[in-house]
Batch of 3 targets.
Target 1
Amino acid sequence: MKKYLAILFISCLGATAQLPQFNIPAANATQKKTYCNPMDINYQYNWEQVNDKISYRSGADPVVINHNGEYYLFHTIQGGYWHSKDLSDWRYIKPSRWPMEDMCAPAAWSKDDTLFLFQSTFQQRPIFYTTEPKTGKLEFYNRWLPQLPKDVGPWDPALFYDEDLKEWYMYWGSSNTYPLFGAQLDKDKKLTYKGDYKPFIYLDPVNHGWERFGQDHKSDITPFTEGAWMTKHNGKYYLQYGAPGTEYNVYANGTYVGDHPLGPFKYAPYNPISYKPGGFMQGMGHGCTFKDNYGNYWNMGTPWIAVNWNFERRIEMVPTAFDKDGQMFANTRFADFPHKLPTKKLTDKDELFTGWMLLSYKKPTMTSSQKEDKFSSNLVTDENPRTFWVANTNIAKEWLTIDLEKACTVNALQINYTDYKSDIYDSSLPKVFIQYRIYSSLDGKNWTKIEDNSNEKRDRPNAYIELPKAVKARYIKFENVHVPMPNLAVSDIRVFGNGGGSAPETPKNLEAKRDKDERNAFIKWEKVPGAVGYNILWGIAPDKLYQTYQIWADEPSEKEIRALNVGVKYYFAIESFNENGVSKVSEVKGGI
């Protein structure tokens, strides 16, 4: 989060006596084998919105901690945190004590049987700890960290314990003026600072194209660095940071690499490590990197929604790895399509992709009502979370039907709700839950119910539905049962499966040309008949095409990539995809 969230703290810690509140999935829910971004959790409404009378759910700056083989998720201004055993079903926990001003961009770490937690602050605040995180019971570990100089922080903190050195560290920073900082912590003094803090990372947009601010890096505003995180792998220290700012599609994570927790650190020439400027969810910055129970790495990020407020956001996770040369990379190829949940150590970067393709893109719709033409039902199939359908009411029986235009195999759906002129500022209100029914049909007349969650009361603004068994359908019908907002409003209903035809051809005549400004490259190709979209793949070697820019087939067949590093050679390839599958990757072009 940026310094605009450094609001005036009008009170100190609130130690409440209330019992933990749990949001528990229905007992008869089928165990999922897949997940889909953005994460399907009950993003919270919050008090921060009251003064401006703008109501919306949001989540940002995620940290996931693997504690004793189970997962805990913390993120900005949520009034609590989440617990999961499988990275899919997340249970919201309201803790026993919590900062009255809530937590922005929290830091967390697991050490032995203890989970540590710390908030962003420019003042003096405590470190919490718990040995019973599932119960929500938090205690004070350190009442107050020493005060740092004005504007230094620690905002956007990250905790790190080095198992080999047996030492604690903290990293922090959120500014377009100051760098990222770091300091050793003293375990014998309740994790207070040990020695002075050190400056580490300043942005360099003159040489690092991806660090430029604005949509597709086209703004002259001084960029922000934030979201510190430390990962140790094979004896190397990867100091992760977010840049250039959360408001645009190019929010990303980068890394510097060193041989010691306090550096010196060297810029990784393959940056950014996690980047997703195209597709449905755009933006992948400010998160963390964690390891699952099978030894696989994951990178968390913050995509941008910006319907009600410029910093309205969601969170996502993508598989991450270190290659044989120690290059860290997050795989954002098809990152917002369904992926398998991990069950073993991965051996290929793409093996979790289900191959379930998007069936609903730009497909025609019918609806029970729509409030105005600008809120057309056809907007639910445009793959844009900032456009949305609004029904006349919020009552049960409001419905919308998607015509897939042919019989397809349907494996999963995702329903993305929008807070349109909402009046909610407290997620604990009894009315804050989502209920729906989903039907399928081959002829548009005879309908079969394939999903019904009307027996549970969970808030699911980005509900992901994995069908227990694939169904054959041409028509998909969404039927509202309950929403808490004054009007039923949906940005996108996304249908995944297979169209039953052939995958598209590989795009021909790929051209890649480096600009005089080395931070940019121009990519061109021939359009492929029947393609739904394309993935432009690039990287610093022919076998390291780890970056992806996804674009839709109705966009121009050329793209300017503005995320390159000066003095680094790049290689490019492209693939097309449709409702049936993905083409072979084109011949690699580059060395430019």
Note: The two ends are 35 Å apart (CA to CA).
Target 2
Amino acid sequence: MDMSVWYLVGAVLVFFMQCGFAMVETGFTRAKNAGNIIMKNLMDFCIGTVVFMFLGYGIMNSENYFFGLIGMPDYQLFTDFYGFNWSNFFFQLVFCATAATIVSGAMAERTKFLSYCVYSAVISAVVYPIEAGWVWNGQGWLAGLGFVDFAGSSVIHMVGGISALIGAIILGPRIGKYTKKKDGTVEVHAIPGHSLTLGALGCFILWFCWYGFNGAAASDPAQMAWILGNTTIAPAVATVACMVFTWAKNGKPDVSMCLNASLAGLVAITAPCATVDALGSVIIGLVAGILVVVVVEVLDFRFHIDDPVGAVGVHCANGIWGTVADGLFNTESGLFYGGGVSHLIVQVLGCAAIALYTVILMTITFKVIKATIGLRASAEEEIIGLDITEHGLTSAYADFLPSAPGTLGGETVSGPVDISGLVPTELAPSVTAAESGHKLTKVTIVCNEERFGILRDTMAAIGVTGMTVTNVMGCGEQLGKTGQYRGVEMSMNLFPKIQVDIVVSKVSPGLVVAAAQKALYTGKTGDGKIFVYNVDNVVKVRTGEKDYDALQDQRG
């Protein structure tokens, strides 16, 4: 097999991770910011390409590398186009974009777009290139010590995760995430993402692309198979561990946290994917699946740091764990494989050095941005949503309207509706329709969507066809039901319902109520409610007819 071709194919897969990150972050946040997050993930790569081309690649990969710390850009891609190593440039570029995009999720829904573009450029221009050169440039000082980070647990994920953590701290939480009580304690509120489906799609895309992320630099097919095996075992074990852990802790397996756990296992195995065996992968994945839950919840409940997608738990914590794990499970030099502590010390030293550099540079970057152009969107912009305020985008889902209830399935009446023996419900005299007086009465019915077909047919059978139907959210006795989102208790008291509004004059409202009760009754909680009101006036727009006459072509 030509490994040079696989090297480029793997790099293409890494590029497609931008799509995965975009879907994860969009799904785990609210719909009013979907366009903003998509734009950020797009510009991560585009801005990153520009700055990496002009500065980042040179200081990372230059042959003129000073003191094992930084290179001198030589711009061979412009001066020697045909002799330039384009394979290495493209490979390093897509990895650089990954480091930058990690930050987006933790700072989502409240960051100015311009500020995001600035710090994304800083990451691609100087943060990632300098520390990555220490490890992946043969002249780098960490490379000289034998530091192992095969595909970037620390070089990419820890750096992105630390940047995300610093940004989230300086930025502050989203409005409504935390509430301080009178006794001084802080109440944590869940802000669920708008589409777990998109989040899951992004997770699967990322896992698929990770085979290129970890395997692209394999030296031969045998090593590539070894890497791909480890890249499968660790996330699978991490996800199972997370499922069991959250199930035991919360009473239910946490869906979104298990998606995070898959990514956590992938991050953790990224550094040692080519140096550990199956047992090592299992242990690394096991720790990763629990570690991500602990870190996400500690940041949320203990430190009140708002990270909407769990980027810090996934990338920072498990980037550190995966890098250190190579010092424990490396089959040639790991502590548990008879290699002593020397390699472990190098791994810890490398993590600490890269982390310290990232903390210093990114803290300065965020502080400067905050003091100049500003880092955070205004409260009004955050509440309205960044799609409209930052991009003039009314909605990322402008053409998606609620489906008509009658088209969504559910039960219908087979054959003629039986209304024999139907006795009108007794209502208060003030709302009883006297046929001679042509009294106007409004009947509002809130019910389950699946019974709408029966209700519609029953209303037609008693002579009512004019109705207005609305998709609504509501609750009744279910108010006390609670659930959890990423470990945070949340009320589950709103359920999708159908609201049917009917105005009658000729048909008795008591008959409408009785027919609705018959159509909707199942004997279960949530069958619905019926409200009856007096109506003072009705005006038909087309003809100007009023009251009783305005309703006659509706047979009501």
Note: The two ends are 77 Å apart (CA to CA).
Target 3
Amino acid sequence: MAVYYILMALILGLAYPLCIRKPSQKKNTIYVCIVFGYMFLMSVFRYGIGNDFYNYRLFFYELCSSSLSFPERFADRRFEIGYTVIMEIARLLGGDYLILNFIMALLILFPVAFVIVKYSKMPWLSCWLYLTVTFFYNSLNFTRQSLAASIVLLSYYFIKEKKHWAVILLALAGSLFHMSVLIFIPVYLMSLIKPSAKLYAAVGAAAVPVFVFSDKLLRFLLTKVVSGYSEYLDTIFLNVGLSRAFLIVPFLFMVLGFAAYFSGWKDKCSEAGVFTNFLFYNFLIWLFITKHFILERFTLPIYIFIILSIPEMMCHFKEIRFKPAVQKGSHFKEQVKEGTIKSYLSFALKNGKRLWTVLTGAVLLMTFSYNDMCINEGVHGVFPYESVFDAASEYSSEQLRTDYRKIFPAKSFQKYLSLINKGDYTTVICVNGDAGSSLDLSAKLLLRKLGFKTDLNKLDGQSYIGVVSGGKVVFEKTSDDVIEEKLAICDNSVFITAVSGGLRAEKQIGQVYVGDDGFTPNLNGLNFAVFDNELKMIAAAQTYDTTGYDYIGTDTTAFYGELLIEE
């Protein structure tokens, strides 16, 4: 979790020296580069976070290992053409999921950073909103949707210039990555209508029956219109909504937009009406999201414009001045003797001079609280943050020493390797049958961090035994025949027998014995036995089938932390 708070500290801590005090385009550019550079690194090196992470990862590796020709892969594709092209490029550049992460992070974050530098009147506030209103968190989960929204954000210039055809073309370009972005086109065209109470009343009234019958309407759309998404029928994504607490921020932003527009913003900013309408339609979509969680992705291309419109509103409020209630020199009691709210506000806000400061502070407090709520709710599955280097940061050393049974079972391969890296362990790997060639960069990095030297992707059916302790190799050996070695581990106080038989050997086996007892599951793939160096106990024993990218694991929890190894 610390990485997110460090990002928040960067945004606020660098705001004054680089954006507020003696601002310049150069300093703004440096500021945005630092903030978005940090986000870029977080995005590229993430692993296992985001509700869709493993699905996207599996789809990518299936494409990489496909024997179909290039035209056949496109004909058989399961995503929009733009994302398929990106996966093909990542495949050509090495075929590791980290490369795909790199490309997607660049394409998602660079347009946003460019627009903030180029057009934002308060770059630090734009960066703050991009993080705390969860657009960045979205990009770690809804990757295709976030890329589509970033492309639509580039239309800001054309919205200002009223080049409607260019705005629509960019939305169509975004739909090459996710079709949900097409909702932006009708919302944009409707937003060209001048804001008014009559407009909002009419649209709100029309939305009521749609909200009431939304279940039937969505079922019809998913079965008759966009049947490609019919798998969402009868799932929680369609039938369960987010808490109404998520409506608070969109509602307050809408109110802020109304206040700005009708207090003179419309006379200073040609696109003020469009952005005020965006906030209204965004709130309506969020209202439906409280009923159908799946609709959250549809708000992204509309909602993201707040990173530019809110700073513009703050600058508008900065110029507002209230007319004094009485002549200069009058006492406060005389000024507010009628007890009017306007008089009290005028005095408290120094006739408007403090208005923008109060509103900016309110936005910061409101979005910080919203961000904190999202962290506690685990929004988008991106909390806590996990990287390719370590996915077990939430466990203390004491937990690792005493809670084997609670921690190790049913862990993903990458988390399992991270746990082993954190503890004071001796780790033994024995290959049974086929080690495969499907270890991704994250797995290889963590194995290298443990101390293993051999590239297990290149065994090609050979037998293998590896033993490491404290980041150092104790024993490594490969052979075309069965390997059987008696070894002393844990400072020569525990004696084991490790056996490996790969595909080339007469017998396929991957087992670690202490005396006559075998501890590993002895299944196809990498068989692990992990010993606690201090307690001289078996901490964990597990097999991971590394012939496929899903790394199916089988454990032997009965031994975890219980069996004392006799010296």
Note: The mean pLDDT is 90.
